[in-house]
TrEMBL record:
<protein>
    <recommendedName>
        <fullName>Alpha-1,4 glucan phosphorylase</fullName>
        <ecNumber>2.4.1.1</ecNumber>
    </recommendedName>
</protein>
<keyword id="KW-1133">Transmembrane helix</keyword>
<dbReference type="Pfam" id="PF00343">
    <property type="entry name" value="Phosphorylase"/>
</dbReference>
<dbReference type="GO" id="GO:0005737">
    <property type="term" value="C:cytoplasm"/>
</dbReference>
<feature type="transmembrane region" description="Helical">
    <location>
        <begin position="182"/>
        <end position="205"/>
    </location>
</feature>
<comment type="function">
    <text>Allosteric enzyme that catalyzes the rate-limiting step in glycogen catabolism, the phosphorolytic cleavage of glycogen to produce glucose-1-phosphate, and plays a central role in maintaining cellular and organismal glucose homeostasis.</text>
</comment>
<keyword id="KW-0472">Membrane</keyword>
<comment type="similarity">
    <text>Belongs to the glycogen phosphorylase family.</text>
</comment>
<keyword id="KW-0663">Pyridoxal phosphate</keyword>
<keyword id="KW-0812">Transmembrane</keyword>
<dbReference type="GO" id="GO:0030170">
    <property type="term" value="F:pyridoxal phosphate binding"/>
</dbReference>
<dbReference type="GO" id="GO:0008184">
    <property type="term" value="F:glycogen phosphorylase activity"/>
</dbReference>
<keyword id="KW-0021">Allosteric enzyme</keyword>
<dbReference type="GO" id="GO:0005980">
    <property type="term" value="P:glycogen catabolic process"/>
</dbReference>
<keyword id="KW-0808">Transferase</keyword>
<keyword id="KW-0328">Glycosyltransferase</keyword>
<keyword id="KW-0119">Carbohydrate metabolism</keyword>
Amino acid sequence: MSAADKVKPAASPASEDPSAIAGNISYHAQYSPHFSPLAFGPEQAFYATAESVRDHLLQRWNDTYLHFHKTDPKQTYYLSMEYLQGRALTNAVGNLAITGAYADALKKFGYELEAIAGQERDAALGNGGLGRLASCFLDSMATLNLPSWGYGLRYRYGLFKQRIAKEGQEEIAEDWLDVPFLYAHIILHNFFIWISIIAMLFNIFQKFSPWEIVRHDVVYPIRFFGHVEISPDGKRKWAGGEVLNALAYDVPIPGYKTKNAISLRLWDATATAEDFNLFQFNDGQYESAAQLHSRAQQICAVLYPGDATEEGKLLRLKQQYFLCSASLQDIIFRFKERKADRVSGKWSEFPSKVAVQMNDTHPTLAIPELMRLLMDVEGLGWDEAWAVTNKTVAYTNHTVLPEALEKWSQAVMRKLLPRHMEIIEEIDKRFREMVISTRKDMEGKIESMRVLDNNPEKPVVRMANLCVVAGHTVNGVAELHSNILKQELFADYVSIWPNKFQNKTNGITPRRWLRFCNPELSEIVTKWLKTDQWTSNLDLLTGLRKFADDEKLHAEWAAAKLASKKRLAKHVLDVTGVTIDPDSLFDIQIKRIHEYKRQLMNILGAVYRYKKLKEMSAADRQKVTPRTVMVGGKAFATYTNAKRIVKLVNDVGAVVNNDADVNKYLKVVFIPNYNVSVAEVLIPGSELSQHISTAGMEASGTSNMKFSLNGCVIIGTLDGANVEIREEVGQDNFFLFGAKADQVAGLRKDRENGLFKPDPRFEEAKQFIRSGAFGTYDYTPLLDSLEGNTGFGRGDYFLVGYDFPSYIDAQARVDEAYKDKKKWVKMSILNTAGSGKFSSDRTIDQYAKEIWGISACPVP
Ligand code: GFP
């Protein structure tokens, strides 16, 4: 008899009554094939609850699909290699407004909803800001009732799980689809133990997420390699090579307080039974018998496989094509499905029914693939296919870093996708001819604008150029970044297509990033605004401004912050063993580790602070604002300097935190395995957050928006969305420092010319590390990257040395401001009050109106 047996099972999913919900949870616990009916621990309770919530979602998802099918609106398809969904349970019940009902239902089994929600593993299909943005966008698309879907890949192991060992960061496969207790549980309770063991050995149990629905009816063939055949009438066709299948998994995405639920369709790669060579298998050649099956598994094994080798590069390109081809075949299928007469093809209508948004250059192959499908499969001529493609696809740029602008070897492209390479060559040729014939003045610029770089040493396809040439719209993700795109990176194209370029400042969903992750603060906001409508109309937060000096609000606000800080301190203790003081200033920097994001400046600042504390008298120390510096983020496995930075933060922490003289005034903690659910604990508990990239290099940033929304004050440069945040929250509520974007090139030149004079504080901090104060690890190469051109690195390309003194000064202003509690709480309130602009609802509304041309289509 398990706990689930206490409640009579009920298969009906749709009720919002706690007793009926409990019955439905009990039903899933007992009849769902993943579980033995004999136990109902917290993990089982999570899966049964999730499946019950999924029933609600499915109903909405089906209704929405049918409604879109009937009304046939123009629909957006968001193509992204990354989605960082995080946990789904709290978000789903919150958006469906059934949190209370589920909490009451779980109480009938003796469980708290929060504890059950905490069992969920993060869906980790992304790397950083780009993937998290995509997930915020899906939430807003559904909430705004927009006809839209996301497409992505169902990576089995996502990016990686980060473990901090003595040597620094270690990467472990992140098995987000695994059900940890499942095998052990089945073995313990199943009478047919031997069947379980065999099943386990052969991995017969599919790994799964309770939120996805496998769609065995949605399968498309995807070809790789092969050759181009030319028929007698001159038609070209791609043939031969190897063909795998793309199988759809749908993840329903509910909107907030709406009946609409849209889809995130994730593709998995499979091979068929015919691809399994039974003859070879029976001959003992097990590996070659299942060769295609194993190649299929490689495609969706991990996000961003290492690309140092040719095999790695090929695999990444395969992944990109796999996403694009499966998604476009599916989009065309749906275009035809919605109106039977479209089978005969009215292709000029396609762009009035379909918008495809390419999230960065990763899905650029959507362009030649759409051309191929239209020409080779649907029979259109070049001009017609080009007009359709151009009106359909648009491109978002997320970075100006040259190394992040993708370029693919022409040889690799030709080998893997011979027909696409032909199409790309034709696009390049026609673009060149167009410029020559219409813009004589641009002739000198043509080579750098072309899609192909035919440098004989390394001929490549420039994916960003292909996007700009073929897309109808190109957008940056914050005003500063979009201006840099127009004035620098894509300036030459602007003179040809002045109207192609737009800005869409990023946003975040206020549901996940305030309402659900910070219930204490949310309640206060609702109470003072006398409405919870801010959850879907974030501009209402400006209403808090008039209470910014109200003492009662101050008391409530400070109490909520303290509660979140305590929760965060508990998390830190649990994952690192370090005790931190909730009365100290919580100072956080969480993001991918990258030299341009300058975590190194943060830690050099902490080192400098530590050294000064050591030099102070005990009496002077007592006047210091106690601080806890927290850093979290993953370093890409092959990015050596980023991994050294992770190691340095940990080494500094190990010394500082154990130094009895100063550890009351400073702690330095590296938060391992930063992900969405960790961010949901860190951000509400933050008071100061660091967004300190070299100006002009961070396209936008979105964690800056999340912190500010949660009443955290930013210390930052005038970079990315910081510029707009500062405008909105007021310059007195933002600690600004550092060079401006338009100074950076000149400062780099000065540095090259030996004109840079380092501040003694910068030298002191580096020297302290070089002296071995933080252990024996050799930080020389890392520190040398901050030196002039003589050093190991890029001559301090990211200008840490130049900005360091103003950074330290800004930190001193922070210390002073924090001593005045009233002033600090007011700054905190004004940050929340000024965050309305940064709702992803605003961003998506702008995309819908200004790029996609789609309108709301609410399920009646
Ligand atoms: C990238 C950019 C960020 C930007 C996001 C979303 O993030 O500045 O905010 O995209 O547009 F760098 P990462 O994926 O690189 O973290």
